[in-house]
Write a sequence for this structure.
């Protein structure tokens, strides 16, 4: 029992029992349907990174009930997750499906799969909007330690997928707004 559980109480059996040491069929199906995931890593000193990953549904490959393959499509070249994995092979993936209030969490141990490794043979970038830089550089093989579905409570609290709120954000051109704010915050650094 951790400190917070001692202070606020233990989880009910249903919550404890939803955590599996492998990906059951429901979890595998959800991963195959998800076009978006967040990869979380931390180095040996505890410095964290959360990296968004996206593609067409199924871009993360379910190899079997205990292994996932995440192709690494060329991006900003910071490679912060990879730097963390050099000293701490633990990682977590949180999968999202637009409009669905459920998520799936898969935690485990990761190893880097080089482009020349046969496990990446025939795997091309699976994205909706490709450009000249869209290519698979390498991949991550995650060996599952635990996997489970997460209830929709946080989405209920935030109304993240609420169509009316999404429409308001689009009408206000939120992408242009935040791009402008980002550019202003980068003044003198670009």
């Amino acid at each position: 029992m951790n400190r917070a559980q001692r202070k606020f109480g233990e989880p009910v059996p249903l919550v404890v029992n939803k955590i599996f040491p492998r990906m059951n069929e429901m979890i595998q199906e959800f991963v195959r349907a998800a076009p978006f995931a967040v990869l979380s890593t931390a180095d040996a000193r505890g410095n964290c990174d959360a990296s968004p990953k996206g593609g067409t549904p199924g871009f993360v490959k379910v190899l079997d009930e205990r292994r996932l393959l995440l192709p690494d499509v060329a991006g900003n070249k910071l490679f912060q997750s990879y730097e963390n994995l050099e000293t701490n092979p633990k990682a977590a993936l949180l999968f999202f499906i637009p409009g669905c209030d459920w998520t799936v969490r898969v935690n485990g141990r990761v190893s880097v799969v080089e482009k020349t490794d046969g496990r990446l043979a025939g795997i091309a970038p699976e994205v909706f909007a490709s450009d000249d830089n869209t290519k698979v550089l390498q991949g991550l093989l995650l060996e599952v330690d635990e996997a489970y579905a997460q209830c929709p409570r946080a989405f209920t609290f935030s109304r993240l997928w609420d169509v009316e709120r999404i429409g308001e954000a689009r009408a206000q051109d939120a992408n242009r707004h935040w791009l402008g704010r980002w550019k202003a915050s980068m003044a003198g650094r670009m």
The mean pLDDT is 94. The longest strand covers residues 136-150. The helical segments are 3-8, 13-17, 25-33, 80-87, 153-158, 163-171, 174-185. Strands lie at 36-42, 48-54, 61-64, 67-73, 90-96, 103-114, 136-150.
